[in-house]
Amino acid sequence: MSIRTTTLVAALAALGVAGCNDDTRYDSTPGATLPDPEAAPDAAPEPDAVESEAERKLMVASSGSLGPYLADSEGHPVYFLEGDSDGSACTAECLEAWPPVLSGAAVPESGGQVQADLIGTIERADDSIQVTYNGHPLYYYAEDATATVPTGHDVDDQWGEWYLLTPDGEELQGERTATEGT
After folding, report:
1. What are the distances in angstroms from CA 61 to CA 4, 24, 65, 67?
2. In DSSP terms, which residues pair with 71 in a beta bridge?
3. How far apart, in whole angstroms, are the C-alpha atoms of residue 114 and residue 111?
4. DSSP output for 106-144
5. Is 109:32 a contact under the CB 8 Å cutoff?
6. How far is 51 from 79, CA to CA, in rounded Å?
7. pTM above 0.85, yes or no
8. 4-55: per-residue pLDDT in tens?
9. Helix count (H) and strand count (E) of the chain?
10. Residue 109: its pLDDT value, please?
11. Where are the domains of the chain?
12. CA 37, CA 7: separation in Å to the nearest integer?
């Protein structure tokens, strides 16, 4: 091997080892990363944290009388805004109440009953990349007090009507009960 080739191999090996020393944890699904272990497990994602966190896997969850519905790998429910096909119906103050589910460098992996062919992305006006499912831009609800209790389903506010999505990419039928939020 030439000195130039040996140097290149050593540099690539060093990069590979350095990449193994980051704080990213992986679940058993290739390519799916888990969020920061320092984050509070029950807290709804903060808008700034959603933009900077590692890819989250889309999964199927259920809670009380609601389910199955889409959630992220920590159990945070994800919602869609009726009539919003490009992310433009939720801007400014809406994004404080309904932070978008943003993608990093790649589309999130699917898990379980989630249909990979329904996962997509759109580019928002601020150049961020928002995850979609069956053409619906996905959002978190800032009022969700815990990861496993969806309180944003069937909410009608100044921006429109918000719903959970089924694994088939359709609006979840059913209403929240008193124990599932108001």
Report:
1. 53, 24, 12, 6
2. 59, 77
3. 6
4. SPPPB-TT--GGGEEEEE-TTS-EEEEETTEEPB--TT-
5. yes
6. 17
7. no
8. 333 323 333 333 333 333 222 222 233 333 333 334 434 455 544 443 344 5
9. 3, 10
10. 64
11. 3-180
12. 36
